[in-house]
Automatic annotation (TrEMBL):
InterPro entries according to UniProt: LEC1-like, LEC1-like_C, PX-associated
Domain PX: 162-359, 382-483
Residue intervals of the PX-associated domain: 3-121
Organism expressing this protein natively: Knufia fluminis
Coiled coil: 302-329
Keywords: Coiled coil
Protein name: Uncharacterized protein
One GO molecular-function entry: phosphatidylinositol binding
Length: 739
């Protein structure tokens, strides 16, 4: 049994390897120089494979051919994007380990990884063709919605459903006039999108902080000026005015540089950079205030200790990584390792150590934000502005078609209305007079998307009806993308694509139960391993097969629960209910009275008024006001994959001595839920009650769930990664090499 792999074991092996390889490649971008041998569209050497083959394959096969993006000049990639990425790498942004919390960048990078690992598997393994003669779909059945999405993907790759969809969309903007398959897919996508929003903004410890960032940025966007600009009839004048609004730099230095009186490198910021800078500067202000409070505390670490921590903040990446490794192996906190390396006394009270760790976290966070502002807003030459100009120039033909086909001003108003409602729905309010917190559920986000879905339907209809040429460009691109997921040997009966453990078709599961076009190469890699290693890996793959089955079954169960449960707002008279039950109006006022009414760049007075707007706060300093969050997650096996990556994040010991924590530890979750000002955003009472496959509740006919059953715990796959990780990367590099 240990000499070869069964099809199901091959599928499990591919699942493990792509899951960790995708995130490992994302992590590679921390290091300066990773783009030197990346391959197209960056630096390439003939017959030299990319060090990050999975990500490079996605970019080359899908992004580079997008209409508009395929027309950007070579400098867009090799100079502008390249230099921005290099500058961010050289900035040496902080790690979650050093701060004792899960950072926002870690949260977002693991989320991205959990999503793109699916197209990575499809790109190299292919997507099997199935034959499902059943074209009836019950929109209240979780199994039918999953089956509908699976069949839609199959018909995108091997059929003509994309042509049919565009043709029907040109005829009507009413969802009910589409076929059963499209309505099932629409419902499945809507529920899963709501689930992702809910998990990101409500169940993630950093959710309310991320929401605050969006809210603060939203306050600075001059929607009225954008709408007035987009109403200009002459397309050339409209694009010129739009560029001035977004990219014009209104400062004394920019004017004196332009007329030749000065040659200052930093000639100010445009609107885009002003938004980035202002939002992050608000954070810096709160962090500096928090540092000042620490320094005034009676238990504050000495100036000598603070100076050593400041030196660590400015240290290079190699030095910091060395101290992190020592911290992990010696079971001492990062604070103690920094002090020991600097030759400073490390004996301190636990309260002083806690303040020292908070001080280090604040200083690292301040530096991160200042570096991002420096790279994005104060670099010379200004690659960000040049990048946007290149994009607009490349997309000018597409903008012309969109301008003629769609009312872009109304589209901006629709986006503004959606963002405004989303911010209201996702904001968890403090407990009411009864002491209870109204926590938005997945159903509330579903209701939010239903409220605004017609805006998308209208936009797609207008574009397909009035912009047939540009629609064909994107349709051809979409069909080209879909065709790249075809397998060399593609046909499999629908019954073979079902999960044997549950008897239901899982959208997220690989079909059939093999590794597709990678089945043979993976078997060869496996066969080259020593016999003892093969035996050990087999003992991991068998429970992994069951774990993946149960993970998908859990997702289907949660989908059924969502479909048969009412949103939170339906049972309350809260502001949440008012937002979700109110009707959209055709004319919507601007969210900010200070937005300029003319299509021109905001004056310095307007910019100053924007900067002085009070930023949103996500924290509650009074413990009684901290919202207590207890909410079930929605469907999506990718959520479990996301949580797996996030939970494995190493975090320094929060006490002076002790083993490193993981992001899943309760103390880390609580600390990660703090805002930059030190106040708590939320308190998790029960977290992810039914997310992982350890909490699977099998579905029953007619929806709903029945009692829990014994389930498979996710196996430790370190042996698999150590034995096959590097060889798997080489395999992907060979298959993706085309230059």
């Amino acid at each position: 049994m240990a000499d070869t792999l069964t099809p199901a074991q091959s599928s499990a092996l591919l699942d493990i390897l792509t899951h960790y390889e995708t995130y490992a490649e994302i992590r590679e971008f921390r290091r300066s120089g990773v783009l030197d041998h990346y391959g197209p569209p960056f630096t390439k050497e003939a017959k030299t494979p990319s060090p990050t083959p999975a990500l490079q394959a996605l970019v080359s096969r899908f992004l580079l051919d997008i209409p508009g993006l395929r027309d950007v000049p070579e400098d867009f990639w090799t100079v502008q994007i390249h230099n921005i990425i290099e500058a961010m790498q050289e900035a040496n942004l902080s790690e979650s380990y050093d701060k004792g919390t899960v950072g926002s960048r870690r949260t977002l990078s693991t989320a991205v990884s959990s999503l793109i690992e699916y197209p990575v598997r499809g790109t190299f393994g292919g997507f099997a063709e199935i034959d499902d003669p059943n074209d009836n779909y019950d929109l209240q059945s979780a199994d039918d919605l999953s089956r509908g999405f699976r069949n839609f993907v199959d018909q995108c790759i091997y059929g003509t459903v994309l042509d049919d969809l565009v043709k029907k969309a040109a005829e009507t903007d009413k969802l009910e006039e589409h076929g059963k398959l499209i309505k099932a897919v629409h419902e499945f996508v809507l529920v899963n999108l709501a689930s992702f929003m809910h998990y990101t903004l409500i169940l993630s410890p950093k959710g309310q902080y991320l929401l605050k960032l969006v809210d603060n940025a939203n306050k600075l966007i001059p929607y009225m000026a954008l709408r007035q600009t987009l109403k200009i009839g002459n397309i050339a004048t409209m694009i010129s005015a739009l560029m001035k609004l977004i990219l014009a730099k209104m400062s004394v230095a920019s004017i004196t540089n332009w007329i030749g009186l000065t040659a200052t490198e930093d000639d100010g910021m445009n609107l885009l950079q002003q938004v980035i800078s202002t939002v992050l500067q608000w954070d810096v202000r709160d962090l500096e205030s928090r540092v000042a409070k620490i320094e005034k505390d009676k238990q504050c670490p000495s100036k000598e200790i603070r100076a050593a921590l400041d030196d660590y903040v400015q240290a290079n990446a190699e030095k910091q990584e060395e101290l992190r490794k020592h911290s992990q192996t010696s079971s001492n906190s990062i604070v103690l390792m920094v002090l020991a390396d600097a030759g400073k006394p490390s004996d301190m009270k636990e309260e002083t150590h806690k303040l020292a760790l908070d001080y280090l976290a604040c200083k690292l966070s301040i530096r991160d934000r200042m570096e991002i502002v420096r790279v994005g807003c104060h670099s010379h030459p200004d690659h960000l502005t040049a990048m946007v100009r290149s994009l607009v120039n490349a997309y000018e033909p597409i903008i012309r078609h969109f301008h003629n086909a769609v009312d872009l001003s109304d589209t901006v108003a629709d986006c503004q209305a959606f963002i405004t409602d989303m911010l209201k729905v996702a904001r968890i309010q403090p407990p009411g007079k009864d002491g209870k917190t109204v926590v938005p559920s997945v159903g509330d986000f579903i209701q939010l998307l239903r409220k605004h879905q017609y805006s998308s339907h209208k936009f797609i209809h207008q574009l397909c009806k009035n912009g047939k040429e540009v629609t064909k460009w994107y349709l051809d691109w979409a069909k080209s993308v879909a065709s790249k997921f075809q397998r060399e040997s593609s046909f499999v009966d629908a019954s073979e694509s079902q999960n044997p453990s549950e008897g239901n078709t899982s959208t997220d599961a690989e079909s059939p139960r093999d590794a597709g076009d990678l089945t043979k190469p993976l078997k060869e890699l496996f066969g080259a391993l020593p016999a003892d290693t093969r035996k050990e890996i087999i003992s991991i793959l068998d429970p992994m097969v069951l774990y993946v089955d149960e993970m998908h079954a859990s997702s289907t169960t949660r989908l059924a629960d969502v479909l048969h449960s009412a949103p939170t707002a339906a049972n309350t008279n809260s502001s949440l209910s008012k937002v979700l039950t109110s009707k959209l109006t055709l004319s919507r006022p601007s969210s900010r009275a200070s937005s300029p009414a003319r299509a021109a760049a905001p004056s310095s007075k307007d910019a100053q008024a924007q900067t002085q707007n009070a930023p949103s706060s996500a924290s509650h300093n009074n413990p009684s006001e901290v919202p207590k969050v207890s909410s079930d997650p929605g469907p999506g096996a990718y959520l479990a994959r996301w949580q797996d990556l996030l939970d494995s994040t190493p975090i320094t010991a929060l006490t002076a001595h002790g083993k490193p924590h993981h992001a899943s530890d309760k103390v880390v979750v609580e600390k990660s839920a703090e805002d930059v000002d030190g106040g708590k955003t939320v308190e998790f009472t029960t977290r992810q009650k039914t997310l992982d496959s350890q909490k699977v509740k099998p579905s029953v006919p007619g929806g709903g769930t029945q009692g829990k059953k014994n389930v498979t715990k996710k196996p430790d796959v370190k042996v698999v990664i150590d034995a096959l990780g590097q060889d798997f990367r080489k395999l992907l590099a060979e298959k993706s090499l085309y230059w």
